[in-house]
Amino acid sequence: xxxxxxxxxNKQTALRMLTGCFSLRSAxxxxxxxxxxxxxxxxxxxxxxHPVGILSWPQIRQVNVDGHxxxxxxxxxxxxxxxxxxxxxxxxxxxxxxxxxxxxPWIYRAQAHRSWPNTxxxxxxxxxxxxxxxxxxxxxxxxxxxxxxxxxxxxxxxMLYGDEARAAELALAFDNSVRRLEPLGLQLQGLFExxxxxxxxxxxxxxxxxxxNGNVSMKIARFVVAYEQYLSSHVRQVKKIDLRYTNGLAVxxxxxxxxxxxxxxxxx
Length: 268
Fold this sequence. Notes:
By secondary structure, this protein is an alpha/beta fold. Helices cover 40% and strands 25% of the residues. The chain is built from seven helices and 13 strands. The strands form two sheets. A ten-stranded mixed beta sheet has the order 6-5-4-7-8-9-10-11-12-13. Helix 5 runs parallel beside helix 6. The protein is rod-shaped. It starts with a helix and ends with a strand.
């Protein structure tokens, strides 16, 4: 009987201790919940009033640009970079930034990368025009077309013209022809191709080389041989040279009474 009463007292004591413990823990839980709600409320209020600052953290403090940038592009370049920089160090899409910069007429290639902790590095490769394309375009050193807002200052460049899809091939043919004519002291001023891909080359001295279709290099080589053997001493009287023949060429003179049309058979 005595043991039974003692057991009952022990159970009551343990129950009181457990109840007190639960009460104490519940109080701490409530306090913690209140604290978390307060913190959440604070940050919610802060986000609402400072959304850009939070999303753009850490902010970019410095932008380094390496390469040549033409004065005409400064404003547009700055606007594009500023828009992306405002997104923050981690949220910038480098691919998008590079593409938007390369869409500017005078920028051929742009490469951007982050430099911890707050710097954006941009490398710019500008366009290097080697020829005009019609009245409104330019051809770069890679045979690619671009169309600046102004053509001022480039009127002395040689001119290429034809189907835009063939710009690279025409630029290559032009470059190869220039290399073959330079040793003769002749400068190539233009290359024109019609819808049938028939080509005409214009020299700076006004002579027209009618190349037609086919291999341009072979026909220019034939002209070089004829020039060295005969034409160089009569170049001032030459108006046009037709290279569309299989094994020769025909010369049209400025004064028909000088020699008429002469057909020069090539030994090639």
